[in-house]
């Protein structure tokens, strides 16, 4: 991919390129993958133009601190001027034509980790563009949070994983507070993206219950084939994989931050058989529940 688009518009999801990071093949293998870089680092080599594309499995946040340009988010074109914040769920189709010299940050987070953080209401289910006031941006220290996260990301010091997790949570809290002050900042999105957002909302509502996927299909008014197509287009996963990733993320949180037993955590997520829950957790994370608990406590 050379970063140049034939046009801004697209007529089918299949023609929109999928990337791990823009212009890079591959997929996130680490459930806690995180990457942060400046806007010029990725966009300057492509003539400040990023063609419409998507990242199944990654959630992205882009902060424009200086400059501006035009953005396409799920088929809608929007002009923007800094300071502005883009919040892009996994699979959202997005592209940019930046004014030369535009600066800021691009943060990418693996979907399993994003799902864990979504439980705290810190991130949107649908694409958002927020035009920000410089005073509000400074009051919540958002540019500093991005810069501190980037500095920790690049340093590779002892305790890096814990420090990155802490810095990321501080950044997301700051962004959640900004969003709370700007409830009108939502961006209307493509109907397919809205349907996927409704599915994710149901996952958040029901992931602790042992519901069959047919319940989700009935609640959404979608066939199993249609729901599978939406999930594949938006996140590169099946509906069951998305549900299981959410359950595994919550299980990991319970093991790291609670004193509940493995059986109690599994029961709280709809698993009646502790042995089956342990097998499920290992299949999803590559760790036994005991290993995850020890890892979370630094043992």
UniProtKB/TrEMBL annotation:
Keyword Membrane assigned: no
Transmembrane segment boundaries: none
Keyword Thylakoid in record: no
MF terms (GO), sorted A to Z: DNA-binding transcription factor activity; sequence-specific DNA binding
Keyword list, A-Z: Activator, DNA-binding, Transcription, Transcription regulation
HTH araC/xylS-type domain span: 197-295
Matches recorded under Pfam families: AraC_binding (PF02311), HTH_18 (PF12833)
Protein name in the entry: AraC family transcriptional regulator
Origin species: Teichococcus rhizosphaerae
């Amino acid at each position: 991919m050379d970063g140049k688009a034939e046009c801004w518009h697209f007529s089918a999801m299949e023609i929109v390129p999928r990337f791990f990071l823009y212009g890079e093949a591959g997929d996130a293998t680490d459930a806690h993958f995180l990457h942060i870089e400046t806007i010029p680092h990725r966009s300057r080599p492509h003539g400040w133009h990023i063609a419409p594309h998507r990242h199944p499995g990654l959630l992205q946040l882009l902060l424009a601190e200086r400059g501006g340009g035009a953005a396409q988010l799920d088929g809608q074109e929007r002009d923007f001027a800094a300071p502005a914040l883009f919040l892009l769920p996994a699979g959202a189709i997005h592209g940019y034509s930046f004014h030369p010299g535009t600066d800021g940050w691009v943060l990418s987070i693996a979907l399993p980790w994003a799902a864990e953080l979504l439980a705290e209401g810190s991130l949107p289910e649908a694409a958002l563009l927020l035009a920000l006031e410089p005073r509000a941006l400074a009051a919540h220290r958002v540019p500093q949070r991005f810069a501190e996260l980037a500095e920790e990301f690049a340093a590779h010091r002892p305790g890096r994983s814990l420090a990155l997790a802490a810095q990321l949570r501080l950044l997301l809290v700051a962004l959640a507070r900004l969003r709370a002050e700007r409830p009108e900042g939502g961006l209307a999105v493509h109907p397919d993206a809205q349907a996927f957002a409704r599915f994710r909302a149901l996952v958040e509502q029901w992931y602790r219950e042992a519901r069959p996927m047919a319940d989700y299909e009935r609640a959404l008014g979608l066939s199993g084939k249609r729901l599978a197509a939406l999930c594949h287009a938006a996140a590169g996963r099946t509906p069951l994989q998305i549900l299981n990733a959410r359950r595994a993320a919550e299980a990991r949180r319970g093991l790291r931050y609670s004193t509940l037993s493995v059986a109690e955590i599994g029961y709280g997520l709809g698993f009646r058989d502790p042995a089956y829950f342990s097998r499920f957790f290992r299949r999803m994370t590559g760790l036994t529940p005991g290993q995850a608990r020890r890892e979370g406590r630094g043992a």
